[in-house]
Fold this protein.
Amino acid sequence: MNDTATNMIKLCEDAYHDGFDDGFVTGYLHESDLVEEFHRKAGQPVREVPQCPPDEEVRLRLRLLAEEFRELLEACGANPDAVHNVDIFTTQAINSVLAEEGDEVDMVAVADALTDIHFVNVGSFLSFGLPKEVLFDAVSDSNATKFQDGVAMVGGKVAKGPSFKPPNIRAVLVEAGWNGSK
């Protein structure tokens, strides 16, 4: 194990033993709490122990990840035809998940992949210099406005009702020092 990994483990152990008082892990816990609250309000499952969700829920989670990845490609200026091709192939891949009798989800591989995605996602916030916690709060506050008109589900997602207010991402970025350029 390299020195960086050893130091990270030590920081996590110290944070755990200190009751998370030093703030090292509280950002992640805060995010988890907000997402859990959203799931509960929306009537979406919050499982307390590792277990595979029903097939359609597995595909929903994959569709949501693919949708956000497509939005990221578009935001970074990807060629629209290439994005369309990604959509086609991703949809085909998702539709093939658990399509055959006897297909199973590899929970260890799922845990590994989702953890890696989270790690890469946090690293992407760092690469772009984005204020992750402030942006997360802004999006969470915006998502809460979806519930002002009651909960309506469309395709497994909470629908945006008439009272929905999108987050003011631009204001958060400007407040963090962004000058409006690329």
About this structure: Residues 17-26 have pLDDT under 50 and may be disordered. The first strand starts at residue 153 and ends at 154.
